[in-house]
Structure formats: C-alpha cells, structure tokens
C-alpha cells in the first residue's frame, strides 16, 4: 500500500523504522522543522527526520503541515493511507479529509487523549496501558478506533522502557491495519481523560506530595524530560532514578544523607534518590553525590 508518514518524536521514529522495513514503506515522510535544542540552543533535527534520512526516504519539513506546500507534496505522493504518529501539531482541513488517515496513539482510548499519554499513565499509577489505531478526526484523539492492544505497566517501568514497548506494539498494529483494514468503532463517552502536555511544574518534586507519587513522576519523566528537586540555594538537582522508602522516617522537605544514601522527606513517607544530576554536571549515583558533599552524610537514625 502506498503510504505517507507524519511523525516527529523518537516514539514516531521507531514506528517509522518498522513501517519502512515492511511492505508499506512510505513514499514520503513529513516531520517538523529543525528546532534549537539543549543548552547551546543549536538547531537539531527531529528524530523522525534523522530516521528518514538514514532509511533513504523522501523527507519534507514544512513550517505548516496544513499549508499549501505540504498539501501539494502529500498529494503528489498519491498515498492510499496517511499514517500519523506523534506529529505534535494539529492536522486540519482540507488535509484531514483529503486522504484516509490512521493515527497510532499510545493509550487505551478514550483514556489519556492528548499530548503525553505515556507519562500520564505512569504518573497516575495505572496498572496497564496500550496502543490504539484510530481514524484521525478534528477532535483531540476522539476518532473511531480500529485496533487496540494492552500491556501491563510494571513498578520498574520508566518512560523509556514503556514507550519502547509501546512503539513496537504500535508498529505491529499499524502494519496489521494496513495489511487488512479493520472496521472502526466509535469511542465510548465514559472514561475520557486528557494527557496534558508536561509542564515545568510537573517536573518539580514537591515534598508536600506522597513519596509514592514522586517516585512515579521520576519514572514517567526518565530519561527524556527529567524530574528535579529545588535546593535551598535555588538551584535544581535532577533526579534520574528514585524509589519510595519503606519504614523510613524523614522530616518533610528535608534532603538527608544517611550512610551514603540520599532521602527526601515527604508528606507521606520518604523518597530515596538513587541517581541524580547536579546543576551543570553529569548524572551520577546518589552515593557519589553524597561523597562529594563533605558533611552531608550522617548515620541512619
């Protein structure tokens, strides 16, 4: 089947790699323009652009996917289906109705419609999530669903491990939908939740929250965004791995080192920081961070 692929993120790049390896190799890939990234704010290509170049696929990076330039490029590829995955911008008319469109969405719709479904599922403590193949419509991830598969969320899953598993699952479902187009069913109105975009406030580890919630936040934002703890001097200590302490007493809001282990006292329980990233530094085990801060460590009470 002739396809055009629209995507931007690393998740979308993984799905693209699977699609290009099969019988539905895209005639054209559309992704977002290069944007400044990192501390140096150097222009960097989206993961999908890098994947398309590696795969030798025709690539376009229009400023507006709904603009005339993009419409002409897509029409010239004569797609039987336009595949969309984590593109990161709204697709509007007339493009929306110009071609059949399949969207790969990593959640169990109608739960977690929106921008950050994988992160929000982990943050909420969901026991499972999945991938839905849906028809793209004007609503926010509200179109009818053709295929859906579930996967468990373990207590060790981070965004990195879960999104990788979901990308593989989404790739399989997309190929199935293209091989043998299934019927679509409208989403139920019950159970709708929205996965809002991750904000700076979402990244902040607030000790007024339970330790269990903060541990899930760290997992949900690792390794791509990162959670952080505000230090007394106003700097931020990145937290790359953490877990809820069991039977540990710690003062709420206090960052305490005991016997080489680092703890944050929370409203409920204590959070053990396992891997941290000091301001301007590299990620390191919390024990190394403790050793590098003289007078910080003290025996466990």
Question: How would you describe the overall organization of this protein?
Answer:
The structure is a single chain. With 301 residues, the chain is an alpha/beta fold. It has helices spanning 10-20, 47-55, 68-76, 95-98, 117-123, 159-179, 200-203, 211-220, 286-291, and strands at residues 3-7, 28-30, 35-37, 42-44, 59-60, 81-85, 101-105, 113-114, 128-135, 145-152, 194-195, 227-230, 236-244, 255-258, 261-265, 270-277, 284-285, 297-298. The strands form four sheets. Strands 5-2-1-6-7-9-10 form a seven-stranded mixed beta sheet, with helices on both faces. Strands 12, 13, 14, 15, 16, 17 and 18 form a seven-stranded mixed beta sheet that branches. Helix 1 (10-20) runs parallel beside helix 6 (159-179) and helix 5 runs antiparallel to helix 8 (211-220). The longest helix is centred in the middle third of the chain and has 21 residues, at 159-179. The mean pLDDT is 94.
Question: What form results from the Cα inertia axes?
Answer: elongated
Q: Structural class of the secondary elements?
A: alpha/beta
| Biggest β-sheet description | 7 strands, mixed
Low-confidence stretches: none
Nearest-integer average pLDDT? 94
Q: In which range does the helix fraction lie?
A: 25-40%
Strand-residue proportion: 25-35%
The DSSP helix count reads 9
- By DSSP, the count of extended strands is 18
Cα-atom radius of gyration: 22 Å
Widest beta sheet: strand line-up: 5-2-1-6-7-9-10
The SSE order reads EHEEEHEHEHEEHEEHEHHEEEEEEHE
How many angstroms does the end-to-end distance come to?
A: 66 Å
């Amino acid at each position: 089947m002739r396809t055009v692929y629209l995507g931007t993120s690393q998740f979308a790049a993984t799905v693209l790699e699977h699609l290009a390896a099969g019988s539905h190799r895209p005639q054209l890939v559309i992704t977002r323009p290069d944007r400044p990234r990192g501390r140096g704010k150097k222009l960097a290509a989206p993961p999908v652009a890098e994947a398309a170049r590696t795969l030798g696929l025709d690539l376009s990076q229009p400023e507006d996917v709904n603009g005339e330039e993009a419409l002409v490029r897509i029409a010239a590829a004569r797609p039987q289906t336009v595949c969309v995955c984590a593109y990161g911008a709204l697709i509007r008319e007339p493009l929306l109705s110009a071609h059949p469109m399949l969207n790969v969405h990593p959640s169990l719709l109608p739960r977690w419609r929106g921008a950050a479904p994988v992160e929000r599922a982990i943050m909420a403590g969901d026991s499972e999530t999945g991938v839905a193949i849906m028809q793209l419509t004007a609503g926010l991830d509200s179109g009818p669903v053709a295929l859906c598969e579930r996967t468990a969320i373990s207590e060790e899953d981070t965004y990195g491990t879960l999104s990788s598993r979901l990308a593989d699952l989404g790739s399989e479902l997309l190929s199935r939908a293209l091989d043998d187009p299934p019927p679509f069913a409208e989403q139920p109105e019950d159970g709708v939740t929205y996965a809002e975009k991750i904000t700076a406030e979402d990244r902040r580890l607030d000790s007024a929250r339970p330790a269990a919630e903060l541990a899930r936040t760290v997992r949900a934002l690792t390794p791509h965004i990162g959670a952080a703890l505000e230090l007394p001097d106003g700097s931020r200590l990145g937290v790359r791995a953490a877990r809820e302490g069991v039977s540990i007493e710690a003062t709420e809001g206090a960052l305490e080192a005991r016997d080489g282990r680092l703890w944050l006292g929370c409203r409920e329980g204590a959070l053990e920081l396992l891997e941290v990233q000091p301001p301007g530094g590299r990620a390191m085990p919390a024990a190394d961070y403790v050793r590098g801060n003289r007078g910080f460590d003290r025996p466990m009470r």
